[in-house]
Design a protein that fits this description.
The chain is of the alpha/beta class and 240 residues long. The chain has eight helices and ten strands. The protein has a domain of 72 residues.
Length: 240
């Protein structure tokens, strides 16, 4: 679970998010949505420990406060998948997913038999076992994104955060990827939070909407008319 206590973000006189307190639950898939420029990516990076320009407290996995974590503690608590596409020539999917085991290996980065088993299991969970020996530069965007999720799974954290994971994917791949994230949250009990501009997918395929509107955060159940109306109002739409 992610718990925010009096959490806010701003730069100088520019306020992005007013002080908020809320919980993002484990075992569920939550979509962060809001207009462009409202601070979604900035917020996700703060949750992941990559941006300390915030006030208040972030508690990860119920009891651990984000700013007090060591780098190893954070890496064992939260996995972050950004929008960048990894396209390293000659690196296999197995090797890339193996990088997720870094918080548990020795200083050289050697993988144990157990580490390799976790890598294989992570690829299997996302349906990419047959791609283990394929090189990353030969994959489609959708396949590459799934491998990045496998790396996050191999990191073995209770929380996974993804910044716009459906970007650059075609429509069927977007639905398929969010279905995968939803299944992983349910099966593993992980707290999975992702940002997206795909409003219909967010409302139909997730458990919760984390709506950022008018500098305020609200966590709302997906799939009900009241939530759809609030999203509609935020984006000035009338067809959801």
């Amino acid at each position: 679970m992610i718990r925010l206590e009096n959490f806010s973000i701003g730069y100088g006189r520019k306020e992005l998010i007013q002080p908020q307190s809320l919980n993002i639950p484990s075992g569920q898939l939550t979509a962060l949505i809001g207009r462009n420029g409202t601070g979604k990516s900035t917020m996700l990076r703060a949750l992941a420990g990559l941006n300390n320009a915030y006030s208040g407290d972030i508690y990860l996995n119920e009891k651990i406060e984000s700013k007090s974590m060591t780098s190893i503690e954070r890496a064992r608590t939260i996995a972050f998948v950004n929008t960048q596409r990894t396209r390293i020539s000659n690196m296999t999917c197995m090797e890339l997913v193996g990088m997720g085991r870094a918080p548990y290996t020795d200083w050289i980065g050697n993988l144990s038999a157990r580490d390799n088993q976790i890598v294989i299991e992570s690829l299997d969970k996302i349906g990419m076992s047959d791609y283990a020996s394929r090189t990353i530069d030969t994959l489609s965007d959708g396949e590459c994104q799934r491998v990045m999720i496998a790396r996050a799974l191999a990191q073995d954290t209770p929380i996974i955060i993804l910044d716009e994971p459906t970007s650059f994917l075609d429509l069927p791949s977007r639905y398929s990827l969010v279905d995968l994230l939803h299944r992983l949250a349910k099966e593993s009990g992980k707290c999975i939070l992702f940002s997206t501009h795909e409003l219909d997918i967010a409302l139909r395929k997730t458990d919760n909407i984390l709506l950022l509107s008018d500098h305020k955060l609200s966590i709302l159940p997906s799939g009900i008319s009241d939530t759809a109306k609030l999203v509609e109002k935020c984006f000035g739409l009338n067809y959801l």
